[in-house]
Amino acid sequence: MKIQTKEIKLEDISQTEKKLTVEIDNNYFKNEIEKTYKDIIKNATIKGFRPGKAPRSIIERLYGENIKEEVIHRIEKEFIEEYLEENKIDIVSRIHSDHSFNGENLRYEFKFEVKPLIAPSNYRGIEVKGKETSVTDEEVNSIIDEIIDKYARLLPPDKDVVEENNYVKLVVVSHKDSKMVNKPIYLELNNKKTKKFIIDALIGKKLNEEVELKVSEESEEKMKVKIEEIRKIERPEVNDEFVKNTLQMESVDALKKDIQQKIKERKENAEKESRFENIIKEIIARNPFPIPPSMVERAVENYVHDMEHSSNRKFSKEEHDALVNSSRESITYEIQKYLIMEAIGRLEGIDVDDNDVEAHFKKISDETGENVIKVKAYYEKNNLIPNLKEDLKMSKIKDFLINEAKITIEQ
Prior knowledge:
The protein has helices at 26-43, 56-86, 137-150, 196-202, 240-247, 252-286, 293-311, 317-348, 354-368, 372-381, 385-404, and strands at residues 5-12, 17-24, 96-102, 105-113, 127-131, 153-155, 167-174, 184-188, 210-214, 222-234, 406-410. By secondary structure, the protein is an alpha+beta fold. Strands 6, 7, 8, 9 and 10 form a five-stranded antiparallel β-sheet that branches. It has a four-stranded antiparallel β-sheet with strand order 1-2-4-3. The protein is elongated, with a radius of gyration of 34 Å. The two termini are 64 Å apart.
């Protein structure tokens, strides 16, 4: 260590909080003071003296206390940075520091939090229940209906009377909530999109007619709306020609197989995630460990900040506190999950290399059609590779734990 010390003592306040005490060698401290004086004398411009020629006594009187404080803080900063790096200490909190003098010797006291030392065990062979994934025709047809809706056209109606399956624009004429007045409402009058009690109230009514509608099916409270537009909906027929020309797929059968595969992949990923959550919760229960409070508080505040940013407004104190309280438990669990997975990955020697990263870039390229070189350049330009490596490592650890588990498929 570059800084000369007389004594260094590291103590455990708790499993995650440390106290570091160091006494600086007095000769080293005095030499640093002298070097600083020489630098200042050399560059000082004092009225009545040529540059660099002011007497030491004048410099001491003008800057003595400031020089001492500057040296104290410089040694403090250099020591803690060097000590943490040399001893591979990964702190997770702000460093709280104080200094005093033990006789002539400068003494520092640092307090900080670190990740807990976790030695996980009993994480192999966790018994969990799983479900067989399957895809129904109804699920496939529902996606096809969404595709049809996307390419539907709105046409003028045959007559100015509302009929089933029409698309209507209503304007609120009167409502208990005055803010609702003059607000437009757009409805497609079929049972998949709109409540039957609303369809029944509108069928047979004429363009520009005012109609009373219940605010909800259970309530007797009503509002009045005016039928401002009526449109007929024309949906394309799903046949091989439509699929080829519009969706660039070979046939309706090919479309259905593609949809079925995507639904299956989505369900399998959800099932995998469910199994993993059950596995990791059991591992945490078997391997309890403390969470550094600062990790939780920082993560909670970051979450609240992100929520404010996404809503584009500053929360009130009441909103802030409510969000902090409601999110703390789930955020604490996410930190627990990360720390135990990190410890298992370290114990099992699970890591990510350049081949894993390149394979990920190739996968993105295959899925998006973007050139793999451009994908890589995007990650490098935005400094995303460190986070990517961490995500890939966590994914490897997750797969390891699932593969090691004993999964019973429920029928």
